[in-house]
Write a structure and sequence with these properties.
By secondary structure, the protein is mainly α. It contains 7 helices and 3 strands, in the order ααααβααββα. 49% of the residues lie in helices and 11% in strands. It has a 3-stranded antiparallel beta sheet. Helix 4 crosses helix 6 and helix 5 packs across helix 6. It is elongated and about 40 Å long.
Length: 131
């Protein structure tokens, strides 16, 4: 058997406006005032930053966030296609990112779409800039 060429493989990557079923995962979030207005130099902010740091403390999770930051919803299988890891390993990394609030998901039949949780993403950037 000959391997499929990239041009014959159907694309399942969705742009935010591409598919109404997957759009809900990556609709732009309205920033809530508390995301930016919260104190940046108190114990709670330090704990919040530490929790984010723990979630992004693995190079693969950083890579997944970079992929999702392109504003494309992706299924776990699409992420697996771009990484040299088993599906179960990618699922575990996605679970950690989701538990930290950095990623959200939406089920669409047998597929689960993942994308960046923009308010948390902005909060992480704000906390990092405050150091």
């Amino acid at each position: 058997m000959s391997p499929k060429s990239p041009s014959t493989r159907p694309s399942t990557t969705l742009q935010p406006q591409g598919n109404p079923k997957a759009d809900a995962c990556c609709l732009p979030s309205t920033p809530s005032p508390e995301v930016v207005a919260d104190a940046l130099a108190d114990a709670a902010a330090d704990a919040e930053l530490a929790a984010f740091a723990k979630a992004i403390g693995h190079p693969i999770r950083v890579r997944i966030l970079r992929m999702l930051a392109e504003r494309e919803a992706k299924t776990c299988s699409l992420i697996v296609d771009e990484l040299p890891l088993a599906q179960s390993t990618v699922s575990e990394h996605l679970r950690i990112l989701k538990a930290a609030g950095l990623v959200r998901s939406r089920e669409d039949g047998p597929r689960t779409w993942y994308c960046i949780e923009m308010p948390a993403w902005r909060r992480l950037k704000t906390l990092l800039k405050s150091i």
